[in-house]
Amino acid sequence: MLEVRVAFTIDSLKLGGAERVLLQWASWCRQEGWQVLIVTRQAPQSDAYPLPEGIERVVEPPLPRQLSWLGWFAFPFRVLALRQLLRLHRIDLAVGVTTLPAVKLLLATVGLSTRTVVSERNYPPAKPISLPWRWLRRLTYPLADLHLIQTRETGLWLRENCAVHRQQLLPNSVTWPLPDREPVLEPSEFIAPRQPLILAAGTKAHQKGFDRLMPVFAELGRCDPDLHLALLGLAPGQYHGFDQQRWLRQLLGQDSDLQERLLMPGVSGSMARWYTRATVFVLPSRYEGFPNVLLEAMAAGCACIASDCLTGPADLILHGENGLLLSSQATSDDWGAAIAGLLADPGQCLRLGERAARVRERYDAACLRNEFLEALLRLRHG
Length: 382
Description:
By secondary structure, the chain is of the alpha/beta class. It has 16 helices and 15 strands.
């Protein structure tokens, strides 16, 4: 068996789509018998996912205190530390996931024989980074041996703005049913049987457009006293210095009954149960890369409504065929009418859900696994 040593670099293994995809790719490599290393900057205390069996995890060594005081100017020392780590483990292939880890990886491997792969996980102009990082991205991205892109729009932007020409389209895969992990949250603990449920999920309230749902739920909830809205994934307390749950409750208003029916139970490791329980799944995002939650909800047979933001949802939903796709400029009234229409038409929900579930074949993990491994092997032999 060919001995391959592959490393994946990312900031942390916190809750998120990029982290889940990285762990899936790492598992695929390990199943091939490769030696797999995951390198993070953050310690395991921030992890949301268990490490797959047989995979080694290392944390970038902390800088000496006198260097850490330099702030951004200590970045070259972090690059050197990563370079030493890759050389120590004799890495053949290295995959940088998300912008900053990818830039650092490309700088760390200059002059080494290590082949490099970059994977952006959002549409870059939708999530701007600071000017120094934009310069570094423009400088380093052409150095990568391959860019794994989720959508053609992202590939076009990278080609035009970062001179990235070595690309391969590799959307996220889906496996159904989703396995449970901790914490397991049972929908029945939060909502009674047969009560209608609007479901949304994500860790970043503003990106996912959860604030857009507050006036919609306020209007629909006053008309239907049984209607609930569940927002999964929002951790209680501060998120980057901002209390997302409190913000959304303030937007909803003072109606105590509506507040009680707005469910924010936090992170759930039992998403399959929530998708199955949902009457309608909604994704009113301002921007996406390739939305895992929408892909999972469709695989579960949910009737889905999504915002036609710059990239992602339109790759999955054909409007009126396997879900509803609303303009990125859709108003609260537009969202309210679309959701109300599905809530009132179980037959339409069933038809959309049955067609949505066909994404299980289109984005089958086994097929995409082969594409991913073959791409890495071509680099290894190149």
